[in-house]
Amino acid sequence: MNNPMYNHSVPVLKQMLHALQAILAQADAHVAAKSIDPAALLQARLFPDMFPLIKQVQIAADFARGIAARLAGVAVPASEGKEQSFADLAALLDQTLAFLDSLNAAQFVGSESKEIVLRPGTPKEKKLSGQVYLSQYGLPQFFFHVTTSYDILRHNGLAIGKRDYMGAY
Question: CA 136 to CA 141: how far, in whole Å?
């Protein structure tokens, strides 16, 4: 089944998560080869008021699961956010990719007009259509955290470029 909401979410999320996974594997190999404490990269930030790499990856995975689950009408899989190593982040991305693989295009039928409620029951509650949620909130948030993860690693000397960021498409 061809469904634009599925096609514009799940394959895109998977492409970028696979690319992020490959970049993190390169970072893990880099710290081992250079005898660098992995925490130096895992806790690296672009600026003191920004989240470190480990949190950027966790948030990217959270957005990937949340976007897909909300549009598919299934429960958002929870994550404890206790990752502390490159291996932990690889496992988190594996779990996220497995969740995305469990979804199919039929689950996304009608999701463009589905009401998505962000921060329900709070003063910051916001209601969006599925189309607006995906294109103007979910994907931009996801890409921000994937890009920031890439930027942190590049800034800290990992020899990666646009092809690494994009992954296979």
Answer: 9
Low-confidence residues of the chain, pLDDT below 50?
none
pLDDT the model gives residue 1? 65
Q: What is the DSSP letter of 119?
A: S
Q: What is the largest CA-CA distance in the chain?
A: 52
| pTM of the predicted model as reported, rounded to 2 decimal places | 0.96
- C-alpha to C-alpha distance for 69 and 20, rounded to whole angstroms: 20
CATH number of 4-166: 1.20.120.450
- Start-to-end CA span in the chain (Å): 20
- β-bridge mates for residue 115, sequence order: 129
Q: Which two tokens stand for residue 129?
A: 């259509």
* Rounded Cα distance, 39 and 124, in Å: 34
